[in-house]
Structure formats: C-alpha cells, structure tokens
Specification:
Oligomer: heterodimer
CATH topology of the largest domain in chain A: Rossmann fold
Number of domains of chain A: 4
Number of strands of chain B: 21
Number of helices of chain A: 14
Largest sheet of chain A: 9 strands, mixed
Number of domains of chain B: 3
CATH class of the largest domain in chain A: Alpha Beta
Mean pLDDT of chain B: 91
Largest interface: A-B, 77 and 84 residues
CATH superfamily of the largest domain in chain A: P-loop containing nucleotide triphosphate hydrolases
Helix content of chain B: 25-40%
Shape of chain B: elongated
Strand content of chain B: 15-25%
Radius of gyration of chain A: 27 Å
CATH architecture of the largest domain in chain B: 3-Layer(aba) Sandwich
Structural class of chain B: alpha/beta
Strand content of chain A: 15-25%
C-alpha cells in the first residue's frame, strides 16, 4: 500500500506533508491539486512531517490537499530513442507536449512506446550475465545501441532465453534471465534508474589516457581535456561561456553529446534546437542532432527541477557509456543548480554556509564530477563520460563557493577573463590562469607524442612560457614607456601577441576558423613557435611592432583559409617572404 | 479585482510586520489575494492554519482587528483590445480617469512557454543609434537592459528606442519612477502620436514600494495577450528593475529569510529570470521584446542586481559619458547584444561583423594610448592616429544622438578606417577588404 499524506504548510515550492506511513529521503510523491498531480521530492523528514520540494508552481495549493508517495526515488527511463530527444529536467519529452505554454502537471513519456526497433541478439542463451552485460543491439540512427541487462540486476544470472532478430517495441519482452534461486525475470529494451545514484556496473575506472579533440585551439593545443576527463569554464557574463560550450558540443570527437541547459536562457536552447538538426558532425558526416540529447530546464522553469536536470543528464550519459561509447556531457550552468540548492536550503531554514549556500555544497559538487570518467567495461571494452560544466561566478569573482568547490573536483580549468572579452579576444580563455592537469599525466604525454608530435608537450610548455614572458614585458612597457625599455621587451611582447592572435584567438562564427583539426593545430602551432624562436634585428620598437603585425595579418588570413588550399599556400609563401625580409 | 460574494471575513490578526500580517484561517490557497483593512494582500506562506499575507501598500495603521477577506484567486488582469492607450496602477486599475477595462480575466505570472515551441529570434529592431545598431544590434524576442548610473538619460534613450522601433504595442512597466519621469513618458508618447499603441502600468515613487512587485507581471500578462492571442509584436519597457529588486529584498527580509550577496534574497536569480524569460519569439509571428533599465551605484556591475541580470538577459547596453567628447555614448566594451549574430551580416550588409570588430579593437588601442598619455609617455604615430580615430568614432557613431541607418553606419566606419589606418592595421578578411576598401 502506498503511503499517503495531507499538506500542512506551503512556502513557495517547499511543502510540508503529514504522512500516514513510511517515507524515504528523496522519495517521489504526487500532490493532488484539484485533479492536477504535482510531482515533488522528499528532501527532509521530521517525525510525521515530510518536507518536499515541488517541481511545479504551487499556486492555489491548500492545506489538507492530499499526496501519494510512490516508493521510489526520481528515476529516468533508459532505452533506445533517447538520442535526438528534447527533455525537460524530469525527462518529460518537450516535443510531445501540447500547446505553446508548459502546463503544470503534464508529464509526457520519455520514449516512444509505439516505435518498432530492429533487434539483433548478440548473446547466447545459457551464458552467465549480470548488470550492463550486452544482450543485443538496435540501430539508433547510425549508433549501435546495446540492449543490456538492466543495472538493477546486480547478482549473477543465467540467460534463459533471448528473442530472435526482429522488430520490437521498447516494452516488448526480449529476454528472460534466471537468478540463483531459480526465479525468472523478464527483460525489455527499457529500464529505469534513480538519477542520484551513480551507475557502477563496470569493471574498473582507470586514469584517462587519451585526449579528446574539440577543434578549439586554446583547449586542444594549450590545455587539452582527456576523454573521460572533467573540466569547468567559469566566467563573468558576456565572456562567451555559452559560445565556447556550443563550439565544443558541435566539434568534439565524441559519439554522444548530452547538453544540460540548467537554469539558463531559453533562447540559447532554441539556438541548439534550430541549428543542430542542420549542422553536420565533422567526424561522422551525420547531422549533429542524431548524436545529441538535450535536457533543458531553463531559468524560468520550476527551480527544483533544475537540480534534477543535471542528474538526469549524467544518468543518460552513464547509460551510453555502458555501451562502450564516448559521451560528452555539457552542463550550463552548474551555478544555477547550486543556487537552486540554496533556495531550498533557505526555505528549510538550515544554517547557511558561505554566501548562504548549503554547507554540503562542495561535497555535492565533487560527488557529481566523480561520476564522469573513463571505464573498462566487464567485456573489456571502454566507454567514457567527459564532463564540462560552466560556472557563473557572482560578480565575476572566482573566489566564490561554487567556483572554489568546482576547482577542487575538475581537472581542467578554463578561466574566462573579462579583460580579454572586453578586448574582443575570443575565446576569452585566460592563457595564464587556465590549466589542464592532464598535461602532467605521463599517459597523456605519451598519447600526445604519438598522435600529434614527438615533443609536443615540451613545445606547448614553451609557448606558455612565451605568453607569460610577454605579459611581464607588457607590464614593464606600461610602467616604463615604449622608449624606456630595451627592444628585447617589445620583441617578447610581440611574440606572445603572435601566439595569442593566431593560436588562442579563434573566430567561432567563421566557417573555417571555428574548427581546427589536431593536424592543422600541430602545423600552425609549430609554424608560430618556429617564428618565435627566431630573433629578428630591429632598429626601434615601432619597426618591431609593425613587423609582427604584418606577420599576424598574414597568419590570420591563413586561419581563414581551408587547410593547405591554394589560398592557404599563397599566404604561406607571403609569410616566408616577410620572414626572409625580416632577417 | 473584486472579492467573491459571501466570503468569510476574519478580524483577528496574530502578528504584524512592516510588510506582512499573519492570521489563522482555513481553506486558503497559496498565492491567493485578500484584502486587509481594504488594502490588497497576497498569501506568501501557509503553516497549518496560520496564513502569512504580504500587504502590498504596507501595514502602516493596520490594527489587530482589521477585516481580512480572501478572494480565492491569484492576482489577475482583465485583457482585451480596450487596454490600448490606457494607464494603470500596479493592481491594473485605471489611473487615467477612464472606465474599467472589460475583457477576459487572466492570472498574472502565468506558466512559461515550452522552449521547444519557441522560434529563434531573427528580426532586427532598428533604433538609428549606431552604438546599438552597429555594435549591439537588437533582435525581436530579445531581453536586454540598460545598465546606467542614475544620472544617465536612460529613460530618454529608452523612450527614443521604443518610438523608433517598428512594433505593434509598447507596454511600459514603471517601477518607482518619479512622477516627472512618468509625465515625461506620457508626454513623449503623446507627442509622437503613438498613444494608441501604448499601455502603461505605473508605480511612482509616491506609492508604496511593495506594490512594484506586481508591475512586471501585469505588464507581461498584457504583453502575452497581444503577442499570443493577437500575434502582435510587443515591446515591453521595464524601468527601473533595481527598484523592483529592492522591493523583493524588503519582503524577504520581513519574512526572516537569510539574505545572500548584497542583502538580496537567495532567489533573486529565479525571480528576475521569471520576468525576463517572458521575452519570446512565438511560432505564429507574435513576439515579446523586453528592454529594461537597471540602475547601478557608481557603475558597479558586480552588485547582485546587475550581476544576476547580466546572467539572465541577452546582453546589456552600457551608457556612459565620454570625457573626451562630452557625449553620452553606448560603451562598446561593456555593452553586448548576444543575439546580434542572428542578424548582422544576414539582415545587414556582409561587412557588418568585420567592421564592428575592427572598430572596437581600434577603439581599445586608443584606450591603451590614452593610458600611456596619462602616464606621461611619448605616443607613437599609431597611438596618435588611434586617439584621433577614437574621437571621431565616438561623436559620429557611438553617441546616442546619432540617427542613421545601418548601411550609413558601416560607410561612416569605412571612411574613418581609410582616414586613419592602413589595410594591414585593420586585420580584416581579404575578401571583405577587396569589396569595401576603396581609395
């Protein structure tokens, strides 16, 4: 029998319910508001009072209204058909909802229950199976979608029977497994899993050892992110967080992209809805939308569902990881999620931590980041979830709780700088403050030396050093004046400008410049570093500045031209002539 | 807003604070309206049978035996074509001596548009101001505030933008604006002969601050009626959102909530987002565009109000006085229109993006040169050219008194480029240079 209860108090979306039976922390309940069912989650229990956060507006709710508890936590439905779907934070399909406005209490099915999928069995009856073992596959777009033993079946089972190749609905029986007591369990192509629990049905989680290409030069060349790695992008508003994230989502070398738009602008999601079905994935030549799932809880949608949305996204990511795929999960922005936690903690009158955030914020954030990673599956294949979150620090101050907590968990740090954004130097990733811990991993260093160039990391560090020296020289020039410093300072400054303009800056709105392959990055970066290693003689600082400005202009034209095209080679020739004139 | 017939009247208040009262009552719904001693109030907290009400006009003079009666309904607005040309207070009651509006009752602060049903904004809203059209182009369905110090002429600029914009309805939500500014808006709309397409909801400084909380929702309920039901293009002006946020903090303070940054409520982001996210391009052609004003104290954009606003809105327009030319300009560094990429070079000439970026970069070089000058260093030839360029750029393009079309703006910029720079110094893509760099 389900536990039921009656509403006893309401403050915004925090509702207290007096219950008549057992309730669990994080259990889901539905409150009946004159026939409309409002979904809510238990966040605190005190005696007979359950405190629930309601995922919808509580307008019109009265004391005495009834509630029914479901006996499970917030779950997502996993199965073929998740890709190219657009969900809200609770995995309701936004596409199948009626009307222009979101109606309270309207819940839609995450999967198409009528669609037929062509199932091909890959496992033979009689073998021993357990959670996440592959039984067969269906084609989801171009992707082989593995049908697995549901994650809840944690023991050892014997596969008793499996359906023959054919067309099935997601709810059709495709296999029967027998547990050690001899009880049979029927399996379908779909399963449910609680979002706040990590899926751990894999063999082990090694250190990441490969980099993930994003096509964004300031990331790939300067601070690469590993496949299965974690990174975050903090920055004040207007510094290009979203543009950078969208660029990564379009270009990254991943099989599945999951975008969690968490408490951000609706028009940004509309941009994805509009563009992704048109855009082509550079790696597979397929439409981007085919590999993308959008979880969208924009800033005007109910606050409590914002928190759920990132977990929903992560769980779907872990599901695809179990199929041996490379998943990239992007969340914009994790600060909004933290703020949702703050609003609830505030209403529950908990003692606040820093900036009124809940005390356990750092733990919540690091737990979440820890769910990403590269895993060895039980069948010796690998899968990965790479996670990049954005952070919107209040007032652009990186010393605030969300940024600080995230810094402790994420391995890559892409700090967006207001100063660079003001100068329109996009992407505004600060080359000095940003870092990638993966550049220190021996596994990654050896991956880069085989994939890119033998002394690549050494070269990257050299470039970083030039940027740093350039900044120092610039400060000296500003203090002492152009004439007050030796010409060497100007030379140092302009070398750093050369790297900045040609490698770090990238035009996200230009067709060619927006995506740079690793091969091209290696070529251009080596070209630029070679120039930096030459010392040209100059009469005075103006000649120095003009010379480098000339080179920058030619190199920029190269960036705008197709790699190794006629135009590209023409500019290269021009460049070599300038360099020869310079010495 | 009238009460139900035969409603129960309560006469025993349990507690009174400056903005709220509490009493014991049964069968009360969250968010519903009530009157307390004739003043409008709204349910904000229910704990058993103890109901807390926020009294919009303040609780001065309310006695513990004041009469309280509940409406059974959240705040609403009567909508119909009759709204056009009218002036209302925060409760949606006429303040222009006209008759009450008849029409359909709509609850304010209603649900949000399904993001999947939205269309991508794609229509340019020309204003004639180059600081906006050239550098920070506005698009219908966008939400963007002016960030300005209180001494900047933001209301004038906003009125100008509103009257030049090609829209079907202009809805003004005035929160805590001075009576003078209210009359200014009324006057400029009248003078432009545009009164028939204007609807105003006004709370002046003379009225209680908590009433302001209703203004944006009222204005946007009216906007949704025209945009959704009538497929019209609606422009909503909200001034001043800082005073709105101040009213929020008053209420949360009275309700003993723990304040977060700058003594603002922890829910400030969600509260503001609920308003701004009503901006939308609808599938059937209607749209709601929001231009707001957020006043700053001493230009500080790290304060919680402008900071949260910046994270919600699609850019911001920064007004400042250029000390070199004495003109009020739209600051090219701090201003941004996030949606401009949807229209520039598509609805405008193909060189727009390149010209915009090059000009701003050169203006930044001028700022560097100026710093050098102030520090007493010699300027190079390039520095001097940048300074000269900056002056002309500021007067001919950035100043808010400029009124030309986008093509003229681009031509003006090319004239300046040719006057002060060599092609290599511009760093513009060669195909564009070949087309527009004419000697």
């Amino acid at each position: 029998m389900k536990t039921t209860g009656k509403v006893t108090g309401i403050i915004a979306n925090l509702v207290t319910i007096e219950v008549d039976g057992p309730v669990a922390q994080n259990e889901i309940c539905y409150i009946d508001l004159s026939g409309t069912k409002l979904m809510a989650e238990v966040i605190k229990v005190n005696g007979k009072e359950a405190y629930v956060q309601v995922y919808e507006s509580t307008r019109g709710l009265k004391t005495g209204d009834t509630a029914e508890f479901e006996g499970h936590m917030l779950e997502v439905t996993l199965g073929p058909g998740l890709l190219s779907s657009n969900y809200d934070g609770l995995q309701n399909n936004l596409e199948t909802m009626e009307g222009v406005f979101l109606k309270r209490g309207e819940y839609t099915s995450p999967l198409d229950m009528e669609k037929l999928w062509h199932f091909i069995p890959t496992a033979k009856p009689g073998i021993e199976v357990s959670a996440a073992d592959w039984l067969g596959e269906v084609k989801e777009g171009w992707l082989p979608h593995k049908i697995m033993v549901p994650f809840v079946y944690k023991e050892k089972y014997i596969l008793k029977s499996i359906a023959p190749e054919g067309d099935y609905k997601v709810s059709d029986k495709i296999a029967v497994i027998t547990d050690s007591d001899g009880t049979d369990h029927e399996l379908t192509m779909m399963q449910k899993w609680p979002v706040k629990v990590a899926i751990t049905a894999y063999h082990d989680k090694p250190r990441p050892y490969r980099i993930m290409e994003t096509g964004v030069r300031c990331i790939d060349t300067f601070n690469p992110i590993a496949e299965g790695g974690t990174g975050f992008i903090p920055g004040p508003f207007g510094c290009g967080k979203t543009v950078l994230q969208h660029a990564i989502s379009k270009q990254a070398e991943a099989d599945v992209i999951i975008m969690a738009a968490c408490g951000e602008r609706a028009n940004e999601v509309v941009e994805i809805f509009t563009e992704f079905p048109e855009l082509i994935d550079v790696h597979t030549g397929r439409h981007l939308m085919e590999r993308t799932t959008i979880i969208c809880n924009t800033s005007n949608m109910p606050v409590a569902a914002r928190e759920a949305s990132v977990y929903t996204a992560m769980t779907i990511g872990e599901y695809y990881r179990s199929m041996g795929l490379r998943v990239l999960l992007l969340a914009d922005s994790t600060s909004r999620w933290a703020q949702a936690l703050r609003e609830m903690s505030n209403r529950m009158e908990e003692l606040p931590g820093a900036d009124a955030f809940p005390m356990d914020l750092p733990a919540i954030i690091s737990n979440f980041y820890a769910r990403a990673g590269l895993v060895n599956l039980n069948n010796e294949k690998t899968g990965s979830v790479t996670f990049i979150g954005t952070v919107s620090p209040a007032g652009g101050n990186l010393k605030e709780p969300v940024t600080e907590s995230t810094k402790k968990s994420a391995r890559c740090f892409y700090a967006l700088s207001q100063n660079r954004a003001d100068k329109k130097r996009y992407p505004a990733v600060d080359p000095i403050d940003s870092y990638s811990k993966y550049l220190e991993y021996p596994e990654i260093i050896s991956d880069l030396s085989t994939r890119v160039n033998k002394d690549w990391v050494e070269k990257v560090l050299k470039g970083k050093n030039i940027i740093l020296r350039g900044k120092e020289a610039y400060e000296q020039i500003n203090i002492l004046g152009d004439d007050g410093v030796p010409i060497e300072y100007h030379r140092k400054f302009w070398k750093s400008e050369l790297i900045d303009f040609i490698i770090l800056q990238q035009d996200a709105f230009d067709k060619v410049d927006s995506v740079t392959s690793l091969e091209r990055q290696e070529y251009m970066y080596s070209l630029v570093i070679d120039i930096c290693e030459k010392d040209f003689p100059f009469e005075d600082f103006e000649e120095c500045g003009n010379f480098y400005k000339g080179l920058i202009n030619i190199l920029r034209q190269m960036n705008y031209s197709e790699f190794k095209s006629e135009n590209f080679n023409k500019y290269l020739e021009q460049l070599n002539k300038e360099i020869n004139n310079g010495r | 807003m009238e009460g139900r017939a035969f409603q129960k009247i309560y006469t025993q208040l349990e507690s009174i604070t400056k903005a709220t009262i509490s009493l014991r009552a049964k069968g009360v719904a969250n968010d519903e309206l009530a009157t307390v001693a004739g003043r409008l109030a709204q349910v904000v907290k229910i704990k058993g049978d103890l109901i807390t009400l926020q009294v919009f006009s303040g609780t001065e003079g309310i006695a513990t035996n004041a009469e309280v009666s509940f409406f059974g309904d959240p705040p609403s607005l009567m909508v119909s074509e009759e709204l056009s040309g009218r002036f209302f207070n925060a409760y949606g009651d006429p303040i222009d001596n006209g008759p009450a509006v008849e029409g359909e009752k709509r609850y304010i602060g209603g649900p949000s548009v399904n993001p999947y049903r939205r269309k991508q904004p794609s229509e340019l809203i020309p204003t004639g101001i180059a600081g906006i059209d050239l550098n920070n182009t506005l698009v219908s369905g966008q939400k963007i505030p002016f960030f300005a110090d209180p001494d900047q002429p933001y209301n004038q600029v906003m009125a100008m933008v509103a009257l030049r914009a090609d829209v079907d309805k202009i809805i003004l939500g005035g929160m805590g604006i001075s009576n003078d500014d209210y009359l200014f808006f009324k006057q400029s709309f009248e003078n432009a002969g545009a009164l028939s397409k204007i609807i105003s909801f006004v709370n002046t400084t003379e009225q209680p601050p908590v009433e302001r909380l209703l203004i944006p929702d009222m204005a946007l309920a009216a906007a949704e009626y025209f945009a959704v039901d009538k497929n019209e293009k609606v422009l909503v002006l909200l001034t001043d959102m800082t005073l709105y946020a101040d009213a929020l903090s008053i209420v949360s303070n009275r309700m003993d909530q723990i304040p977060s940054k700058d003594s603002m409520p922890g829910s400030l982001y969600s509260d503001l987002a609920k308003i701004y996210e009503k901006a939308v391009q609808l599938p059937d052609g209607g749209s709601i565009t929001i231009i707001a004003v957020t006043t700053l104290s001493g230009g500080d954009i790290t304060h919680a109000i402008p900071d949260n606003t910046g994270y919600i809105t699609e850019g911001q327009l920064f007004l400042r006085t250029d000390s070199d030319t004495g003109k009020v300009i739209v600051d090219p560094f701090r201003s941004l229109s996030r949606l401009k990429q949807l229209v520039i070079g598509k609805k405008t000439r193909d060189d727009h993006n390149y010209v915009m970026n090059a000009a701003v970069r050169l203006y930044a070089d001028a700022a560097n040169a100026k710093t050098k000058l102030e520090n007493g260093f010699d300027l190079s030839d390039y520095d001097n050219r940048c300074l000269e360029f900056a002056k002309e750029y500021s007067t001919k393009l950035l100043a808010i008194d400029v009124n030309i079309n986008t093509t003229e703006m681009l031509d003006t910029a090319w004239d300046l480029f040719r006057k002060y720079y060599s092609p290599a110094e511009l760093g513009i893509k060669e195909s564009i240079m070949n087309k527009y760099w004419k000697n």
